[in-house]
Amino acid sequence: MSRPLRFISKLQGRRVLVLGGTSGIGFAVAEAALEHGAHVVVSSSNQDKVDNALQRLRRVSSPLENGHPASGDAPATGATCDVGDAATIETNLKALLNFATSDQTQLLDHVVFTAGDPLVAATYGQSTAEELQRRQFVRVIAPSILGKLLPGYVRKAPTSSYTLTSSVTAVKPPPLLTAYTAQTVAVQGLARGLAVELKPVRVNAIEFGLVPTELHDPWPQQMKDVVFTQYGQATLTGSTGDVVDAAEPYLFCMKNAFITGTSIVSDGGNGLV
Hints:
Belongs to the short-chain dehydrogenases/reductases (SDR) family. GO terms for molecular function: oxidoreductase activity. The structure is a single chain. By secondary structure, the protein is α/β, with parallel strands linked by helices. Helix content is 37%, strand content 14%. It has helices at 24-35, 47-57, 89-100, 129-149, 178-197, 221-233, 243-255; strands spanning 15-19, 39-44, 76-80, 110-113, 161-167, 202-208, 263-266. A seven-stranded parallel beta sheet has the order 3-2-1-4-5-6-7, with helices on both faces.
């Protein structure tokens, strides 16, 4: 008799919610969780993006599940959730959590927050109080409110987790992204604070270097060429990140039941150069 799979089966049958899971890093996390045999729920503020993501995700195969050779029936569902509206944020998140848990009858095992609004490059002297407050909302306030709501929707065990998304700008700020730098520092502090508040549920943050995704699509091509090239040259790997590799730290935080209140760095060694 073969020995049971103790490592790659850690997510098998688990329920995983990915906010921002219809594109970029979030989509890669959802895809990876499905490959590990999880049931995945994705969300976005756009219904077309949810529908498109589900079409692709349901074709994902899992070697841990019988009858999953890209058969179109992978256990993926999704719903819209606007995390950018201060007036409705708590109502929207509660509706998503109720959807993801079938009204709290199927509690979540893991929650991942990768949602983010477009990056704005500008000199700090051009910023206004209103603009700075608005920029904080999706990346800091929304995951804070979600953390507040999670106790009613997540299994209370160290095998459960909530993983946030930060950036190496928290320790190595680039020019013109001071507001974004402040957000990434806040997310790291939020992860540590929530790790204490939500125990035994584990909370961590992933600290990324530059990973080209759809988030960078609005940038002019010349700007992308310059920024991506310069970042790649300023790493030990000589490259920018890739969404497939970017999904791995989230899997680690989900699967490792003894890690909490910390930040995992994935930056190609940029912090050492």
